[in-house]
């Protein structure tokens, strides 16, 4: 397969947008960490706060890896463009493939972070009674029993 200099350039908007989303996640997480840290210092031995802080530490690692792979993908796409420019097509293919792999890995880690984020929100709500999620069957029974 032959690629042109425009092929790796197609990744630039996607990578830029995903990096912006990752940065927004990081900033929101940083704000949450600061708030929980302050709350943790005031209320010792709160198991929910402790669980949230543990989750946040893991999520920060995930976001760091997401951002690293996103930047690596961007740099590899640029190197791929350069190798196309100097007519080194074997290297261009290799760097382009590595760029796509880095981007995919970044997205997979992003999915893991979303799953962890959902668990953290469930932990946040765990101390409120009556908010248990019904199963789909229970939800449908309730829905049709009312009619």
Automatic annotation (TrEMBL):
Keyword entries, A-Z: Membrane, Transmembrane, Transmembrane helix
Q: Does the keyword Membrane apply?
A: yes
Q: Name one Pfam family in it.
A: DUF2721
Q: Which domain of life is it from?
A: Bacteria
Membrane-crossing segments per the record: 12-30, 66-85, 91-112
Name the chain's protein: DUF2721 domain-containing protein
Give the species this sequence originates from. Limnovirga soli
């Amino acid at each position: 397969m032959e690629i042109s200099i425009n092929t790796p350039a197609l990744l630039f908007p996607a990578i830029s947008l995903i990096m912006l989303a990752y940065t927004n996640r990081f900033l929101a997480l940083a704000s949450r960490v600061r708030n929980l840290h302050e709350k943790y210092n005031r209320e010792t031995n709160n198991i929910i706060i402790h669980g949230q802080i543990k989750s946040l530490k893991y999520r920060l690692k995930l976001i760091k890896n997401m951002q690293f792979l996103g930047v690596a993908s961007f740099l590899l796409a640029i190197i791929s463009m350069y190798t196309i420019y100097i007519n080194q097509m074997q290297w261009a293919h290799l760097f382009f493939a590595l760029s796509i792999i880095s981007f995919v890995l970044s997205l997979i880690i992003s999915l893991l972070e979303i799953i962890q984020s959902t668990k953290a929100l469930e932990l946040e709500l765990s101390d409120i009674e009556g908010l248990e999620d019904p199963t789909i069957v229970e939800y449908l029974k309730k829905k049709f029993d009312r009619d």
